[in-house]
Write the structure tokens for this entry.
Amino acid sequence: MIRRLLPGPIAILMILVLLTFWLDQTIQHPRIREDYDLNHQPDYIIENLSGVEVAHDKARQLLFSADVLTHYPVGDMTDFEQVDFSRIQPDKPLVRISADYAEFAGGKDNIYLKGNVIIIREKDADKVTMKTEFLHLIPDAEIAKTDQPVTITRMDNTVVNAVGMELNDRTERIDLKSRVKARMDKRHQSADRSSNKK
């Protein structure tokens, strides 16, 4: 008779142990939906920001502004919306860059600009404007490059179209990669020549 009573209490005890274990797991470790990706959850968002970075060794100021900054802790990624950058440095032309979106990867070693990217390089006699849909900036090397179509316009109405470009700001050299086409406004050029003869 004692043998018949033991399996019942043991079964109830086992059910209680399993129920307790299940409750503990459910309360302490809620299940995350499989389609929910924690990598894309920001840890902070800042709106309407602007700032200045001063490099005293180069007497350079970098100004930036953005409508929205979103930081993701995984991979230390920072996204910007409607971003503007300006570089002010003695003996160098003012450079302004704007884009719809920017992504900083690994701090600020690599900056990726996307959507309506415009670079304006102000120079007293020669203003250069470059437009593309994607631009990879490498600030420490002072290089900007793209593998996308790019349009370069100069003050004298020269327009250059190409696919792929690398701009080295240290050497002030622009390398165009492929499908290069140039158009020059001869009327503007002849007007300049006639005004120089006077």
In short: The CA atoms of residues 50 and 65 lie 4 Å apart. The chain has three helices and nine strands. Residues 190-198 have pLDDT under 50 and may be disordered. Residues 38-186 form a domain with the lipopolysaccharide transport protein A fold fold (CATH 2.60.450.10).
